[in-house]
Every structure is written in C-alpha cells, then in structure tokens.
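Data availability (excerpt). All sequences and predicted token strings are deposited with the supplementary files. A representative entry, Voltage-gated potassium channel subunit beta-1, is shown inline so that the format can be inspected without opening the archive.
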Amino acid sequence: MTIAYESGVNLFDTAEVYAGGRWVSYKPLRSSLSTNSSFHDQQCLKGSLQRMQLEYVDVVFANRPDSNTPMEEIVRAMTYVINQGMAMYWGTSRWTAMEIMEAYSVARQFNLIPPVCEQAEYHLFQREKVEVQLPELYHKIGVGAMTWSPLACGIITGKYENGIPESSRASMKSYQWLKEKIVSEDGRKQQAKLKELNHIAEKLGCTLPQLAVAWCLRNEGVSSVLLGTSNPEQLTENLGAIQVLPKMTSHVVSEIDHILGNRPYSKKDYRS
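Structure token line:
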C-alpha cells in the first residue's frame, strides 16, 4: 500500500467478493477509493465502510445485475446509499450496454441517480465492449469506462509461453477454466501473437506487461485501469507503464493492431 501511495496511485478498489482486495492504478482524475459489491441492501456497504474505517467511498459498484431483482429496486438502492452519504457516485460492473441504458432510463423516469461508469474487462484480446459499446453510452448518457484485467489473468505476462508453470494461477484447481483457455487452439495463437508483441516492447525499452497496460491507458475512453498484483515487484513493474504511455504513437498502435488482427469496427469506422 505504501509503494502504491508513493508511486502516485490515487484509487483503490476493494470488494466483498475478493479475499484480499485489489490495488488499482489509473489515469489520475481525482483521489478516490471505491468498493465493489454485489448487494441490494445497504447493510453490506455499511460493513465495508466499517472495516475500511471510512465514512464514505467515492464510487460504489453493483457487480453483475440480479435478474431476479427489478431494475428500479437496484437503482433505488444505489440512490439511497448516495443520499445517505455512504457514497458519492455509483457505477456498474459487468453489465451489458442494454442493462446500463435500462438503469439510466429508470433513474430518469423516477428522478433517481443514474450510474456514472462501468467496470469492464479490457485487454489486448478483449476489445469489443470498451472500444465499441461503451463509447456509444458515453456520448449518449455520459457513462465512463473503468477497466480491469489488463493482463488477461496473467496470460499477457508471457509466463505461459512454454506451458503451465506449477506456481502459476492456471495450475490451481479453481482456475481450471484458465488452464483450458491457455492450452486451447485460441490460447496457442494468443501466445504466438504475444511473442511478436514482445519485439515491440523490446524496441520501446519496456516489458510486455508494461506495453499491455500502456496500450489500455492510451484509449481516450478509459478513465482508469485496475491492476491486480500479488507482490510489490509486480506493482512496481506495472506502474512503469506510465513511462511507456508517451511512446504509444499511432504507428506503434497500428503495429499492435496488425499483430492482433482483432480491432473492432465502430459506427465511426463504417461512416468513414
């Protein structure tokens, strides 16, 4: 935590569903602390605030909408915690564009508070939502993007290039899905692309993880990038992406797009 503060990290993300919480680094907009919870009762947030010894958080997130709970109830619950002074804003996490629009419409209909941002997975191999869907929402209703998993659960670090190391996350029983993903045909193709991307990282004088995080940060629609680290060394390395960001020229980004071959097309692309 000390290293994070001293390095300029000004947002921390903790959640009821995570054992140890997550450290977060992002484009500095303002000092902030967020809590992410899948609850519909303000008692859960009260418990989080007590454990963190805080009176309020800047942003509280509704993690995945409950299909058995009416949208009006969710929006009213979030409006309540804000009106009670427990949070300044609320956002969504892993919601579809349609669900976010529904929440916004409900808020406007009943004079409630709408969400201001969406937490979405975004990395070199996952681009559609952040690059196509969320920009549409931003221009229509002002919802921003707070992205997570910039290293794709460790896949982009390069440690799975020669298989599954015994000490890696993919070797754990609870991450069998990750192992299957890595050893699949698509997984092998991704590893081949990472080898090519590593040449770009070397030319820029950075590591592959730093290149991947900087690539996420270079997106103007991304307000913040959540970093999950297990030790200070990883945190320090990932934060080094800030120094790589100025090197992410249009030429470099085009090189990366050419290697990945997965750049999604937006309405703007079709118009041009």
